[in-house]
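Next up, sample data:
>
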Amino acid sequence: MKKRNWARRGAEILCLILLLGSARGDAQEPDVPALNAHAAVLIDGASGRLLYGYNEHRQLPMDSTTKVMTALLALEGCSLQETVTASKRASGVPGTSIYLREGEQLTMEEMLLGLMLRSGNDAAVAIAEHVSGSVEAFAEKMNERAQELGAQANFITPNGLDAGGHSISALGLALVARQAMTLPDFRRIVGTQR
Protein backbone atom coordinates (compact mmCIF):
# COMPACT_ATOMS: atom_id res chain seq x y z
CA MET A 1 0.00 0.00 0.00
CA LYS A 2 2.80 2.43 0.83
CA LYS A 3 4.41 1.86 -2.60
CA ARG A 4 1.13 2.66 -4.31
CA ASN A 5 0.69 5.87 -2.30
CA TRP A 6 4.28 6.84 -3.06
CA ALA A 7 3.68 6.29 -6.78
CA ARG A 8 0.56 8.48 -6.63
CA ARG A 9 2.45 11.16 -4.70
CA GLY A 10 5.18 10.93 -7.33
CA ALA A 11 2.60 11.60 -10.04
CA GLU A 12 1.31 14.58 -8.11
CA ILE A 13 4.80 15.93 -7.56
CA LEU A 14 5.73 15.50 -11.24
CA CYS A 15 2.61 17.37 -12.27
CA LEU A 16 2.88 20.07 -9.61
CA ILE A 17 4.90 22.60 -11.54
CA LEU A 18 6.20 22.15 -15.06
CA LEU A 19 8.21 25.12 -16.09
CA LEU A 20 8.94 26.02 -19.68
CA GLY A 21 11.35 28.60 -20.96
CA SER A 22 13.71 30.87 -19.17
CA ALA A 23 13.70 34.03 -17.07
CA ARG A 24 10.55 36.02 -16.52
CA GLY A 25 11.15 39.55 -15.32
CA ASP A 26 7.75 40.84 -14.20
CA ALA A 27 6.67 41.13 -10.57
CA GLN A 28 4.94 38.26 -8.81
CA GLU A 29 1.78 38.41 -6.77
CA PRO A 30 2.71 38.35 -3.05
CA ASP A 31 1.15 34.92 -2.34
CA VAL A 32 2.50 33.22 -5.48
CA PRO A 33 5.98 31.69 -5.38
CA ALA A 34 8.56 33.48 -7.49
CA LEU A 35 8.82 31.82 -10.87
CA ASN A 36 11.64 31.99 -13.35
CA ALA A 37 9.70 30.82 -16.39
CA HIS A 38 7.60 31.87 -19.36
CA ALA A 39 4.79 29.52 -18.25
CA ALA A 40 3.88 27.30 -15.30
CA VAL A 41 1.08 25.11 -14.03
CA LEU A 42 0.06 23.41 -10.85
CA ILE A 43 -2.41 20.57 -11.39
CA ASP A 44 -4.02 18.02 -9.14
CA GLY A 45 -2.31 14.71 -9.91
CA ALA A 46 -5.44 12.65 -9.29
CA SER A 47 -7.99 14.64 -11.28
CA GLY A 48 -5.86 16.74 -13.62
CA ARG A 49 -7.69 19.86 -12.42
CA LEU A 50 -5.77 23.10 -12.92
CA LEU A 51 -4.92 24.65 -9.55
CA TYR A 52 -2.65 27.43 -10.76
CA GLY A 53 -1.67 28.63 -14.17
CA TYR A 54 0.58 31.27 -15.60
CA ASN A 55 0.53 31.45 -19.41
CA GLU A 56 -0.61 27.83 -19.19
CA HIS A 57 -1.91 27.78 -22.78
CA ARG A 58 1.09 29.52 -24.35
CA GLN A 59 2.86 27.29 -26.88
CA LEU A 60 6.58 27.00 -26.10
CA PRO A 61 9.43 24.75 -27.24
CA MET A 62 9.49 21.53 -25.21
CA ASP A 63 13.00 20.19 -25.84
CA SER A 64 13.69 16.86 -24.11
CA THR A 65 10.39 16.82 -22.22
CA THR A 66 9.11 15.56 -25.60
CA LYS A 67 10.47 12.18 -24.54
CA VAL A 68 7.67 11.78 -21.99
CA MET A 69 5.18 11.49 -24.88
CA THR A 70 7.55 9.17 -26.78
CA ALA A 71 7.73 6.87 -23.76
CA LEU A 72 3.98 7.07 -23.20
CA LEU A 73 3.20 5.92 -26.74
CA ALA A 74 5.80 3.16 -26.62
CA LEU A 75 4.42 1.83 -23.34
CA GLU A 76 0.82 2.05 -24.52
CA GLY A 77 1.54 0.23 -27.79
CA CYS A 78 4.41 -2.17 -27.23
CA SER A 79 5.68 -4.92 -24.99
CA LEU A 80 8.83 -4.19 -23.00
CA GLN A 81 10.33 -7.39 -24.44
CA GLU A 82 9.93 -6.37 -28.10
CA THR A 83 13.17 -6.08 -30.04
CA VAL A 84 13.88 -2.61 -31.41
CA THR A 85 16.46 -2.30 -34.18
CA ALA A 86 18.35 0.96 -34.67
CA SER A 87 18.20 2.31 -38.22
CA LYS A 88 20.84 4.41 -39.94
CA ARG A 89 18.71 7.48 -39.13
CA ALA A 90 18.58 6.56 -35.43
CA SER A 91 22.31 5.91 -35.23
CA GLY A 92 23.15 9.31 -36.66
CA VAL A 93 21.07 11.54 -34.36
CA PRO A 94 23.04 14.43 -32.82
CA GLY A 95 23.04 15.52 -29.19
CA THR A 96 22.69 13.31 -26.14
CA SER A 97 22.82 9.70 -27.14
CA ILE A 98 23.10 6.11 -26.02
CA TYR A 99 25.42 5.62 -29.02
CA LEU A 100 23.29 3.21 -31.03
CA ARG A 101 24.93 1.66 -34.06
CA GLU A 102 22.98 0.91 -37.22
CA GLY A 103 21.46 -2.55 -36.87
CA GLU A 104 21.97 -2.70 -33.11
CA GLN A 105 19.09 -4.37 -31.30
CA LEU A 106 17.83 -3.65 -27.80
CA THR A 107 14.61 -4.51 -26.04
CA MET A 108 11.98 -1.80 -25.80
CA GLU A 109 12.69 -1.62 -22.08
CA GLU A 110 16.39 -0.96 -22.73
CA MET A 111 15.48 1.70 -25.31
CA LEU A 112 13.12 3.36 -22.82
CA LEU A 113 15.80 3.35 -20.13
CA GLY A 114 18.17 5.00 -22.61
CA LEU A 115 15.46 7.46 -23.61
CA MET A 116 14.42 8.54 -20.13
CA LEU A 117 17.60 8.13 -18.08
CA ARG A 118 20.23 9.15 -20.64
CA SER A 119 17.96 11.44 -22.69
CA GLY A 120 18.93 9.40 -25.73
CA ASN A 121 17.90 11.26 -28.88
CA ASP A 122 18.90 8.20 -30.90
CA ALA A 123 16.72 5.95 -28.73
CA ALA A 124 13.77 8.28 -29.39
CA VAL A 125 14.17 7.87 -33.15
CA ALA A 126 14.56 4.09 -32.88
CA ILE A 127 11.42 3.88 -30.74
CA ALA A 128 9.46 6.13 -33.12
CA GLU A 129 10.43 4.05 -36.14
CA HIS A 130 9.61 0.83 -34.30
CA VAL A 131 6.16 2.02 -33.17
CA SER A 132 5.03 3.81 -36.34
CA GLY A 133 7.46 2.97 -39.14
CA SER A 134 8.84 6.51 -39.41
CA VAL A 135 9.51 9.60 -37.32
CA GLU A 136 6.90 11.51 -39.31
CA ALA A 137 4.16 8.91 -38.73
CA PHE A 138 5.09 8.79 -35.05
CA ALA A 139 4.78 12.59 -34.79
CA GLU A 140 1.25 12.31 -36.18
CA LYS A 141 0.49 9.70 -33.52
CA MET A 142 1.97 11.99 -30.85
CA ASN A 143 -0.31 14.83 -31.93
CA GLU A 144 -3.37 12.56 -31.98
CA ARG A 145 -2.61 11.32 -28.45
CA ALA A 146 -2.00 14.87 -27.22
CA GLN A 147 -5.40 15.89 -28.59
CA GLU A 148 -7.04 12.91 -26.82
CA LEU A 149 -5.47 14.09 -23.55
CA GLY A 150 -6.67 17.67 -24.10
CA ALA A 151 -3.10 18.89 -24.52
CA GLN A 152 -2.28 21.77 -26.86
CA ALA A 153 0.80 20.58 -28.71
CA ASN A 154 2.56 20.39 -32.05
CA PHE A 155 4.93 17.43 -32.04
CA ILE A 156 7.39 17.20 -34.93
CA THR A 157 10.16 15.03 -33.45
CA PRO A 158 10.20 12.20 -30.89
CA ASN A 159 13.17 13.70 -29.04
CA GLY A 160 12.61 17.46 -28.94
CA LEU A 161 15.59 18.39 -31.09
CA ASP A 162 15.16 21.81 -32.66
CA ALA A 163 12.39 21.79 -35.22
CA GLY A 164 10.43 24.93 -36.06
CA GLY A 165 7.00 24.80 -34.47
CA HIS A 166 7.72 21.85 -32.14
CA SER A 167 5.86 23.11 -29.08
CA ILE A 168 3.47 22.44 -26.23
CA SER A 169 1.70 24.45 -23.55
CA ALA A 170 2.64 24.07 -19.89
CA LEU A 171 -0.82 22.66 -19.22
CA GLY A 172 -0.47 20.27 -22.14
CA LEU A 173 2.87 19.01 -20.86
CA ALA A 174 1.41 18.50 -17.40
CA LEU A 175 -1.48 16.48 -18.86
CA VAL A 176 0.91 14.29 -20.86
CA ALA A 177 3.12 13.74 -17.79
CA ARG A 178 0.09 12.98 -15.64
CA GLN A 179 -1.04 10.28 -18.09
CA ALA A 180 2.45 8.80 -18.28
CA MET A 181 2.63 8.61 -14.49
CA THR A 182 -0.48 6.39 -14.44
CA LEU A 183 1.61 3.64 -16.06
CA PRO A 184 3.54 1.50 -13.53
CA ASP A 185 6.32 0.78 -16.06
CA PHE A 186 6.80 4.50 -16.73
CA ARG A 187 7.05 5.23 -13.00
CA ARG A 188 9.53 2.38 -12.56
CA ILE A 189 11.67 3.48 -15.51
CA VAL A 190 11.86 7.15 -14.49
CA GLY A 191 12.46 6.08 -10.88
CA THR A 192 15.46 3.95 -11.86
CA GLN A 193 18.61 5.36 -10.31
CA ARG A 194 21.24 3.19 -12.05
Summary: Helices lie at 2-16, 66-77, 88-91, 108-117, 121-132, 135-149, 170-180, 184-190. The CA atoms of residues 146 and 153 lie 7 Å apart. The two ends are 25 Å apart (CA to CA). DSSP finds eight helices and six strands in the chain.
